[in-house]
Amino acid sequence: MAKALVMHEAGGPEVLRVEEVDVGDPGPGEVRIKQTAIGVNFHDIYVRSGLYKTLPLPGIPGLEAAGEITAVGEGVEGFAVGERVVYVSGNYGAYADERRISADTLVKIPDGVDEISAASMMVRGSTAHVLLHQVFPLQAGQTILVQSAAGGVGQLLVQWAHHMGATVIGTVGSEEKAELVRARGCDHVILYREEDIVERVRAITQGEGVAVAYDSVGKDTFYASLDCLAPLGHLVNFGQSSGPVEPMPVSLLARGSNTVVRPMRGHYTRDPKERDATAAAFFEALKSGVLTPEPPRVYPFEQIGQAHQDMEDRLTSGAVALKV
Question: Which CATH architecture has domain 140-262?
Answer without folding.
Answer: 3-Layer(aba) Sandwich (3.40)
